[in-house]
Amino acid sequence: MTRENTTEREGRLPGIPPAQVLDVDVLIGRYPDRPGPPGDPASVRAVLDEHGIGGGLVCSLRGALFDVDAGDAETLALGLPGMHAVSTVDLRDGLRAERTLDRLAEHGRRVIRLFCEEQHIEPDFPALWRVTRLAAEHDFLVLLGGDVRRMWRPFAGIGACVVFLDTHFYHLGDFLLLARDEPGFHTSTRLLNSPDGLELVAAEVGAERLLLGTRSPLYEPAVPLLRLSASGLDDAQRSLVAGANLRRLLEGRT
Q1: Average per-residue pLDDT in the chain?
Q2: CA distance to 107, 110, 158, per residue, from 103 (Å)
Q3: Residue 30's closest CA among 58, 55, 60?
């Protein structure tokens, strides 16, 4: 077995140094009603290091599920090397969510993650529409979970910059139809594990729309890493997906 094949089996990206590999989808904490890893900062960093991921965007489940302010403070205090702290808002309280977004913009922290499924928010809820418009006005990068076929609507036609974190390869055609008309629509690679999913995105709208996402430590990082390393993308495209695209989107926003 060659050294390169060994590296691929370990879930790393051959030829791309860990410092250049960024994960758009990292969480700390845990869901209280689900089994899973503890999600403490040290163990999360260990998982990333094990898989050759040098940094990325990290958000606290405490902020999404319980207390936005406590979760935000927890994330900011982490100090994990290479990681950018990402805030969230409580969409169950639209007025508070509006004020939170304004405060983040004032402090130059223009990356936010929305947890619509966890907070039971539907695509037509007024709080979500208000937050998406504020985010677009302030040039936020928005990370969004949920079914892309439903959750795209509040972001359409407003110049939003959004990464859909849960685009499934079954629904990739729907994402691509949307992305043709929405230059700010991007997708995580986490669930694009079909034989040609990454290649299809690159051919239809460009590799610039793909961002490596693993949802560490709740999911196994080796799967999206192996799919990217074995893809038909060329070296330049693979480097874009592995981290360069996220670095570009973060410029001036953190």
Answers
A1: 93
A2: 6, 10, 21
A3: 60
User: Mean of the pLDDT values across residues 188-202?
Assistant: 97
168-177 CB contacts, 8 Å cutoff, 24+ apart? 168/192, 169/193, 169/194, 169/197, 171/147, 172/197, 172/200, 172/201, 174/148, 174/149, 175/148, 175/201, 176/200, 176/201, 176/204, 176/205
Indicate the class that CATH gives domain 3-250.
Answer: alpha beta
Q: Kindly list the distances between the CA atom of residue 151 and the CA atoms of 83, 178, 186, in Å, as whole numbers in the listed order.
A: 27, 11, 13
**Confidence class for position 48, pLDDT limits 50, 70, 90:** very high
User: HEC profile for 100-126?
Assistant: HHHHHHHCCCCEEEECCCCCCCCCCCH
Instruction: Give the predicted TM-score (pTM) of the model.
Output: 0.94
Cα 220 to Cα 251: distance, rounded to the nearest angstrom: 28
**38-42-47-53 Cα dihedral, nearest 10 degrees:** 140
